[in-house]
Amino acid sequence: MGTQTRKPENEPHQPVEDPAAFGTYSSPPCFMHELDPSFVGLDGGSERIGDPPLPAGSLDWPAIRQWRKATRTQLIERRLQIGSAERADWSGRIDKALAEALSSASGKLVGFYWPFRGEYDARTLLTGLRTRGVRLALPVVVAKAQPLQFREWWPGVAMSRGVWNIPIPAVGEPLLPDILLAPLVGFDVSGFRLGYGGGFYDRTIAAMPSKPQTIGVGFELSRLDTIHPQPHDMRMDLIITERASTP
Ligand SMILES: Nc1nc2c(c(=O)[nH]1)N(C=O)[C@@H](CNc1ccc(C(=O)N[C@@H](CCC(=O)O)C(=O)O)cc1)CN2
Ligand SMILES: Nc1ncnc2c1ncn2[C@@H]1O[C@H](COP(=O)(O)OP(=O)(O)OP(=O)(O)O)[C@@H](O)[C@H]1O
């Protein structure tokens, strides 16, 4: 398939652009405002993510949960350190692979996300696909430990702020996406993903009356040997990174 192989955001951390006006920008937003200054200028370290290692013989859920927490922190830090040139290059490659994956999505509702903490930004690509009849929806956290709801989004729709200050459509009936893009904090070769640990995507997919096509999107630096999958973890149908699209 070509290039395919397979702490809460508080008030001071406002996204740079006016969410309602998205679509009028010619380049992706800068993430510098989200960087903790201590991350800037640190070495790009090539040590393998996945430290601290899971102690052998401690594969019970409490140990795995602790490992996930530490691993998420490392992976998010690493993602925030991506330089702008690399980010642009990698994002372009992901755009291409994602466009291919969505080539038959006309008439479908695609659940995406308003990027934060250095997540891959699918907004430009997806906004462009609207001309081909692709409809878009954004997730809304209605309550902790509950599935996400999705509300339709288009450029100019009235927005408000949800948890972590993430922009959400201000109003809209709950919709069920046919295709669900899930941001990757981490992922493994089997298609399992790590998110922020809220269980929102796992619960959302589990609760949907018919399973959507699930596409995990993110950067290679999020790759792990295994996330130590648990019964509640939902496997992605497809994982897209700048290097690979699996399966
Ligand atoms: N861009 C983007 N939007 C998204 C998500 C995402 O992963 N990326 N989400 C994907 O889910 C939802 C937001 N996820 C959230 C996950 C956790 C918490 C939260 O309050 N976490 C608590 C700790 C929770 C715990 O550990 O029990 C906190 O940070 O204080 C908020 C939102 C919806 N929007
Ligand atoms: N369908 C479900 N029903 C009940 N609890 C669930 C369900 N899915 C996940 N959980 C719980 O939510 C928590 C999610 O932890 P996990 O490490 O899998 O989060 P995550 O995959 O990083 O989060 P997210 O799905 O938001 O990206 C776990 O405690 C898990 O037991």
TrEMBL record:
It comes from Methylobacterium oxalidis. PANTHER family: 5-FORMYLTETRAHYDROFOLATE CYCLO-LIGASE, ATPASE INHIBITOR/5-FORMYLTETRAHYDROFOLATE CYCLO-LIGASE. Residues 1-16 have a biased composition (Basic and acidic residues). It comes from the Bacteria. InterPro entries: FTHF_cligase, FTHF_cligase-like_sf, NagB/RpiA_transferase-like. Belongs to the 5-formyltetrahydrofolate cyclo-ligase family. It catalyses: (6S)-5-formyl-5,6,7,8-tetrahydrofolate + ATP = (6R)-5,10-methenyltetrahydrofolate + ADP + phosphate. The lineage of its organism: Bacteria, Pseudomonadati, Pseudomonadota, Alphaproteobacteria, Hyphomicrobiales. Its EC number is 6.3.3.2. Residues 1-23 are annotated as: Disordered. This is 5-formyltetrahydrofolate cyclo-ligase. The keyword Nucleotide-binding applies. The keyword Magnesium applies. Keywords: ATP-binding, Magnesium, Metal-binding, Nucleotide-binding.
